[in-house]
Amino acid sequence: MPPAIRQNVPLAPLTTFELGGPAGFFCQVVTSEDAVWALRWAGDRGLPVFVLGGGSNVVVGDAGFPGLVLQLVARGTEFRSQGDYVLVEAQAGQPWDDVVAAAVARDLAGIECLSGIPGTAGATPVQNVGAYGQEVADTILSLRVLDRRSLVVRELPAAECGFAYRNSVFRRDPGQAIVLSASFALRPGAQPLVAYRELADALASQARPSLSEVREAVLDLRRKKSMVCDAHDPNRRSAGSFFTNPVVGAAQAAEVVAQALRENLAHAPEEVPQYPLPGGRVKLAAGWLVERAGIVRGLRMGPVGVSSRHALVLVHHGGGSTADLLRLAVHVRDAVALRFAITLQPEPIFLGVAWPAPQRTG
Ligand SMILES: Cc1cc2nc3c(=O)[nH]c(=O)nc-3n(C[C@H](O)[C@H](O)[C@H](O)COP(=O)(O)OP(=O)(O)OC[C@H]3O[C@@H](n4cnc5c(N)ncnc54)[C@H](O)[C@@H]3O)c2cc1C
After folding, report:
1. How far apart are CA 59 and CA 71, in angstroms?
2. For residue 359, is pLDDT > 90?
3. Structural contact between residues 297 and 314, judged by C-beta atoms closer than 8 angstroms
4. Ligand 1 mutation target, pool 126, 127, 308, most atoms within 8 A of CB
5. Measuring from atom 27 of ligand 1, which residue has the nearest CA?
6. Rounded CA gap, 287 and 332, in Å?
7. Quick check: 361 pLDDT over 90?
């Protein structure tokens, strides 16, 4: 039996922003054969296809999406020893935090800092999800993918995924492949990663924290910033960080520092957060730039606003529209551009709506 195709399905309840219009057509698939069938079905009708996971990193336009939204719902996680590693294969539709919890419970190190990130395992390679000094590219061994053009299933080694900061081949070219499952190589009994200062401070009382203590500390830090999905949190309707941290050349980073000192936004260069990257590039902290551009936590613009706990998180408070959200996001982006001449880039994926280009002046 082919999977059911439903028409005019509201997408807002399938996203964490709870915004946006309906999908023209919607189909949930479990197997790769069903996914192939659905891709052919859409191809025969000339319809575009969008692959949806848990909807925690998408902004859907108010008019919705006229094509087919395909949601991979296969679940399950398998563990297999191989040499010094345990290979963990998670099906695309498996909730990501369940994968982390199961790995930590088995004393497997490598993804503990990625605790509490919403969404599905299949989406984690798309923007190479990361937090607290870890990213999935550190441990992904390979992916089972369905090539959207040839409709062939194949194993894609990590080296061919083009992983970078919040990026991958899947994000650069969404029409390329659907992730069916992801395999991670984790180290049994290895020490957890405590690289990030905030996490180290939270664990300062433990000389050798265990994997589960690190997981709990990460979850605790994330809860305090409304960075976990919690039905009772007033900041809950978000996509996490709305903007990525800008990566700039050394000269531009020095200009940001100079501007901050000129405007008394920092009293010493060290107060401007900067992370040197290989090749001389520098990562700046988008949240710091947003706050120093005068955007305060808790700012409201009608039904949307800035999280009261994190300047980088934009929140829908209910009863709003995607147009409201974009108005706020552009306001934040333009405030940062005006003060620091840095153009923030959005982290979520836009469906049925485009991210507005900055206005050119002069
Ligand atoms: C409160 C909160 C906190 C967050 N914190 C973090 C964080 O710390 N770090 C971080 O990196 N992200 C974070 N995010 C963003 C988000 O959770 C991740 O990007 C997550 O991986 C998205 O998963 P999803 O299943 O919800 O994907 P969706 O939002 O449904 O889709 C995201 C993108 O992935 C594509 N996609 C989904 N599944 C597949 C698949 N099987 N094959 C191919 N493409 C696919 C979609 O087409 C889309 O382009 C946060 C979000 C929220 C709401």
Report:
1. 16
2. no
3. no
4. 126
5. 53
6. 11
7. no
Structure tokens at 244: 């990525």
Ligand 1: which residue has its CA nearest to atom 12? 129
DSSP strand pairing (274-276 vs 177-188):
unpaired
User: 250-255: long-range contacts (C-beta < 8 A, 24 or more apart)?
Assistant: 250/280, 250/281, 250/282, 252/282, 252/341, 252/342, 253/282, 253/284, 255/341
Characterise 161 by phi-psi region: left (phi > 0), alpha (psi -120 to 50), beta (else): alpha
Kind of pairing between the strands at 58-60 and 349-351: parallel
Catalytic residue numbers, as ranges: 166, 241, 347
| CA-wise closest residue to 136 among 116, 164, 156, 103 | 164
Q: Which residues contact 96 (CB under 8 A, 6 or more apart)?
A: 54, 90, 114, 117, 118, 119, 120, 121, 123, 124, 129
Half-sphere exposure of 118 (CA within 13 A, CB side): 24
Amino acid in the structure at residue 247: V
Query: What is the b/e burial string over 163-201, where b = at least 16 CB atoms within 10 angstroms of the residue's CB?
Result: beebbbbbbeebeebbbbbbbbbbeeeeebbbebeebee
CA neighbor of 177 nearest in space, from 137, 213, 150? 150
pLDDT at 40: 98
Quick: pLDDT tens for 275-306.
Answer: 998 889 999 999 999 999 999 999 999 999 99
Q: What tokens does 311 get?
A: 């300047």
The ligand 1 atom at the shortest distance from the C-alpha of residue 229 is 1
**Would the CB of 290 count as within 6 Å of ligand 1?**
no
- CB of 95 closer than 6 angstroms to any ligand 1 atom: no
Return the DSSP state at 192: P
What is d(CA 326, CA 358) in angstroms, rounded to the nearest whole number?
12
The 10s digit of each residue's pLDDT in 311-328 is: 999 999 999 999 999 999
The three-state secondary structure class of 122 is helix
